[in-house]
Structure formats: structure tokens, C-alpha cells
């Protein structure tokens, strides 16, 4: 079921497509709905950390129940990101590789981080 | 620079680590900060769609400037997700494969979708 | 308990301060934690709508359980917004009044909406 | 224009309705779009804080440009929350007052905070 061939991005996208098709969920998987679900899942991951000090946050994987919750929400974020990309025909790995190359020019090594968010 | 070996998740995680290290940004990349940044970037992707009808949203990649913006925000979401996973030692692909298997039991084929969000 | 004097923004801010102080929660109510909680609660409100069609979304208050959930999440969003403003000394009503006036100049009547999000 | 009568929640909701009507933006102000916009604006507020230490976050209003940005994003969050409530007929102040009363029973004074987010 979870052989190595499934543990790459295209394999997981294929499994997600089959999962949704078998349940007739494709009708709900519009780009707008999927991106809303992605942002909701990212917030559920943030929720785990919202009241923690930086030190508590760094130790979050040491407590098994909380570690499982982190992995579960990471899976949800990635699932909706990959389904969003499938529906719109975006290659997420190529998009990230291209962005890293742009950022290597935009933020030369040694620069201060963009604290105000860019 | 962007050879095939980089176009998988571990390769991209390695490039992101090198990128941050070369700029001394590791100090900012705490789990709590990275998950906040992840949720902010997911919302920036949602922002592109917030006023669009479902039909306009489905056609978003047909307009080059907007398509580029979608790819750029997908890259940002994936970048922060992968960096968050690197810092906490989470394997995102294994987490998603495990989640799909759990969901195959939780939502048998033919069930109605969980409209209230689970 | 809920006399009219409490049904304005300063009265509710006072009640929220007393509520947190009685539980010694002030230590968690840093600006950074409160703004994270605000964004998490806004996403929980979004979650109610994420799979709904525009028509289903417009009728969401007709179903009592869902209507209650909407009101509950609206309360959470407002609670964290008001607590965030209390901690930083921001007057939210004055900030909104000033923003409306700026927007009356920025978007003259008759202009098309800023579809790409501004 | 900004007389005292506008500096309460119903007055601001009225001004927001007039503002949208004069620009024919009501067509975009569906509940689903408004709640998406609310969550996007909450994330823009979070973005200001995402790389800051707790100490830097607490001092954010001391720097005028950043203070203005905080007030501007607070206004946006409140604007979309109030417009969402107007469209669905929710009274946000009554919802918050009712929630505080429920929470006074749910979290008796002296209890520990719900660190995992409830």
C-alpha cells in the first residue's frame, strides 16, 4: 500500500486524486475551496503553537500526542497544497526551485532578513 | 544549479537549509515563527482568489501575471512547510502517506464529505 | 451580568481583561500570541464555509446548529481582536473610522474593486 | 463625517454598507468571500509579527511606521468582520457577551489555559 513509489510528490498526488474520485469529492475540490482548506489547515498547525513559548515550541515533538498532532496537520497542509496544484496544473517542486533561484538574487548572502514580511 | 537531483523534497529541503545558513537566517527559523509564516503565505495564496467567482477561480492560470503569482505563493507555502519540517524532524511525505491510509478507513468510499470541516 | 453597559467595545474589553486576570492568563496574552490566535479563529470561521457553494453559504444562518457555530466563532475573532488592541493600546473603532476615510479617497465611488487584493 | 455617532459598531457598519453600495461592491460581499477576506487580513496582521521576538513584538507600537501598519490591519480585520456580520445578520457584540458568559462557566477562575487550542 505504501510502497516506495508512493513516497514522492507525483505518487502522492495520484493517490489523493484516486481517494477523492472514489468518494465523488471532486465536485468540492474547486481551486477556491482547496486554497481555503489549505489556509484553514495551516492555521490548525499554527494553533498547536499559539500559546507556547519559543522554548516549548522547539520541544513539541518530545511529547508523543502533540508530535502526532503536528504530523497530522502537516499531512493535511501538504494534501490540500498538492490537490490545489493538481487541479490548476502547477508543479509545486518546480515552482519552489524557481523561487529559490530568484531569491538567491533578491537576497544576496549576508543581507538582513525582511522583517516586515515580503 | 537546478539539476534534476534538486527536484525532490529532500533536495529542496537541503537547498533551503543552505540558503538560510548563508544569510544567517536560522535564528529566525524557530518552529513557531515558521508555522506563522506558513499560515501567512497560505493566506496570500487565498487572497488571489478571495473575490473571484468559482468560474473565475478555475480560469486563474490563463492570465500569465496571475498564474505567476499563484506559482510564487505555492512556492512560498511549500518553502515554509519544508523548513518547518526540517527544523522539527518531520517527514512530510511519510506523514501524508500515513494520513491517506488512515483516511481510507475513516471515510469509506461512497461517504459524504465532511462539510463542517474535520 | 450582561447589562447594556457591557454591550459596547470598551465594556467588552474590560470584561475580557477581568476574565483573563482572574485566570492568570495574562502571561499568555502577548501581542504575538494574540495575533496568532486571532488568525486561527478567523480560519475556524472560514472552515464553516470552505466546502459550501455561494448559495449554501448565504443560507448558513437558517440551520440553528451551524448558526450557533458562526456566532461562536465571530465571538472568538472579536475577543482576540479586542484583547490584541487592549495589550497594544490600539483603538479599533478609531482605526476603522480613519481607514474608511482614507479609502473614500483611495477608491473613489464608481471604481472597480481591487480583485487582486490590496 | 467622523462625528462621535459613527464611532460605535452600528455606526461603522452603516458607513461600511454605504461605502460598498456607492461602489457597487455588494456583489463581491458574499459571506464566503467576506470570511475569506477576514482571514486574509488577520494573517496580514500576523505577518507584521512573524519574525519578531516576544520582546520586539511588545514594542511594536514604538516605531511610527510599524504602528501605523498595525492600526491599518486592525481596521481591515474589523471592517471585514463587521461586513460579514451585517450580511448574515449576526450581532458581534451580543455574540461576544454571550461567549464570555459561557466561558465563565467553562473555564472557572483558577483553571489552566487550554494550551492545545479550543
UniProtKB/TrEMBL annotation, chains A, B, C, D:
CDD domains: NTP-PPase_RS21-C6_like (cd11537). Gene3D superfamilies: MazG-like (1.10.287.1080). Signal peptide: none annotated. InterPro entries: dCTP_Pyrophosphatase, DCTPP. It comes from the Bacteria. SUPFAM superfamilies: all-alpha NTP pyrophosphatases (SSF101386). This is Nucleotide pyrophosphohydrolase.
Amino acid at each position: 500500500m505504501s510502497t516506495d513509489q508512493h513516497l514522492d510528490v507525483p505518487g502522492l498526488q495520484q493517490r489523493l486524486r484516486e481517494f477523492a474520485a472514489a468518494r465523488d469529492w471532486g465536485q468540492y475540490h474547486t481551486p477556491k475551496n482547496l486554497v481555503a482548506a489549505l489556509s484553514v489547515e495551516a492555521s490548525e498547525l499554527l494553533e498547536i503553537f499559539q500559546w507556547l513559548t519559543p522554548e516549548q515550541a522547539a520541544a513539541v515533538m518530545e511529547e508523543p500526542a502533540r508530535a502526532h498532532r503536528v504530523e497530522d496537520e502537516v499531512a493535511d497542509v501538504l494534501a490540500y497544497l498538492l490537490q490545489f496544484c493538481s487541479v490548476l496544473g502547477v508543479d509545486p517542486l518546480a515552482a519552489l526551485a524557481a523561487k529559490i533561484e530568484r531569491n538567491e538574487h533578491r537576497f544576496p548572502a549576508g543581507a538582513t532578513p525582511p522583517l516586515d514580511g515580503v
